[in-house]
From TrEMBL:
<keyword id="KW-1133">Transmembrane helix</keyword>
<feature type="transmembrane region" description="Helical">
    <location>
        <begin position="91"/>
        <end position="111"/>
    </location>
</feature>
<feature type="transmembrane region" description="Helical">
    <location>
        <begin position="272"/>
        <end position="293"/>
    </location>
</feature>
<feature type="transmembrane region" description="Helical">
    <location>
        <begin position="14"/>
        <end position="45"/>
    </location>
</feature>
<keyword id="KW-0472">Membrane</keyword>
<keyword id="KW-0560">Oxidoreductase</keyword>
<feature type="transmembrane region" description="Helical">
    <location>
        <begin position="167"/>
        <end position="191"/>
    </location>
</feature>
<keyword id="KW-0813">Transport</keyword>
<protein>
    <submittedName>
        <fullName>Cytochrome d ubiquinol oxidase subunit II</fullName>
        <ecNumber>1.10.3.-</ecNumber>
    </submittedName>
</protein>
<dbReference type="Pfam" id="PF02322">
    <property type="entry name" value="Cyt_bd_oxida_II"/>
</dbReference>
<dbReference type="InterPro" id="IPR003317">
    <property type="entry name" value="Cyt-d_oxidase_su2"/>
</dbReference>
<keyword id="KW-0249">Electron transport</keyword>
<dbReference type="GO" id="GO:0016491">
    <property type="term" value="F:oxidoreductase activity"/>
</dbReference>
<keyword id="KW-0812">Transmembrane</keyword>
<keyword id="KW-0349">Heme</keyword>
<keyword id="KW-0408">Iron</keyword>
<feature type="transmembrane region" description="Helical">
    <location>
        <begin position="305"/>
        <end position="323"/>
    </location>
</feature>
Amino acid sequence: MILHELLSYEILRVLWWVLLGVLLIGFALTDGFDMGVGALLPFVGKTDLERRVAINTVGPVWEGNQVWFILGGGAIFAAWPPLYAVSFSGFYLAMFVVLAAFIVRPVAFKYRSKRDDPRWRTAWDWALFASGAVPALLFGVAVGNVIQGVPFHFTDDLHSIYEGAWYLKFIGLLDPFSILAGVVSLSMLIMHGGAWLTLKADGVVQSRARSIGSVAALVAVAAYALAGLWMAVGIEGYRIVGDYVTGGPSNPLHFEVEKTATWLAAYTDRPWIAIAPVMGILGGVLTFLGLRAGREVSTLLFSKMAILGVISSVGLTMFPFIMPSSSDPQSSLTVWNSSSSHLTLFIMLVVTVIFMPLILMYTAWVYKVLWGKVTEADVTDNSHSVY
């Protein structure tokens, strides 16, 4: 028996669908509070010292947290090539804005405190705000578009074509439902940033983070519930018609797909997936209560639970679809028709099994070493060695 045949093609596809979700959730759980702190920065810090306290709560970890973003992009490229091709083509301008924000962020961290000039530092503070708030919003907008279906199709030779003028690849993304999904994402990460600052800061920065974070938690829960209701009554879903092979070659055109009344039919077929939206709503409510009560560690954990539930609910509701096509449903990308080869998925899984635990252990060690609050005294006493 060839080694890679120890796991069937079908199982490997599902495993990589799960791993992709794990990487995206890992990014949201870690770099999510970095973006949240950035979005909160001008509001939790009114003086230069207060803003430096907020910045230095994420200063030692933000670079490591971005590893999850790189891993997620790499996983899409290697495990789901058609998804990579279509998403980077259709969402090109939005991704360019996100990458520009991620390029500005390290520059802002490094240069912000190099000059003792209020205008210089304020400009970089707003750059940190934009580099946190803009990606958080656009990630949600992208998810909203995927839920509704993306206007692409494949030619007979599997060349992907994204329909519409180039400027529509950005402006066209901003429809009402997608903007609502963006509000869910932005408010959720602001909530997460508030929970992080509650744990890592003290004094007035902590107090303001609690107040703003608690409001963001309520907005996130309300917007998420509204998005679910909208999906139930106003968003068409997709389903595969007839019999299909889950372990066959990757060719979207070999599947027959049609639109259905709603995505939420998945909860009738697989009732157990309801745990995901319950976690999302319950986690948001508990985060709000924890912020109002002044709890720290448990509040951050509840915030993570909310993020886990919200992101998981999207994947579980749409399964097996990864990116449906609104203009040609038959071109829709699913777990069963858009993966790399059997051997490629197996080799990648072996590499992941070896290196993922190392990344997790290193990350846990870093957070253990850096445990504790950042105070104004810490920044003042180490002014030339911290951000």
